[in-house]
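Entry 14. Ran structure prediction on the chain below.
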Amino acid sequence: MPAKTPHELPALFAQLFNEGDPSSLYEPGAEPEVLEGHLEIDARMEVSPRKILVNGDIALLVVDWRLGEITGTATDVARRGPDGWRYVIDNPSGVA
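Output, structure tokens:
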């Protein structure tokens, strides 16, 4: 279930994450980055896009997120494919 626009990706990611599996938002071969040590969190993800830059079929997304008491800023890259937008690079730790 890819997004129709890159602006839809953060909210759709949070929805699918909260449902248990956002993997459909990744291109084949792209692996979701796991936040080490935070696999068993009983909290809902909330997102707030800070900036989304689009150039043709590539988008850079900077998104603030919260998962219970854990917060961060993701820096991600998405690409438009034949069926919509999907993540190519997932960096939930932003600049780290």
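The domain at 6-89 is CATH 3.10.450.50 (Nuclear Transport Factor 2; Chain: A,). Will compare against last week's run tomorrow.
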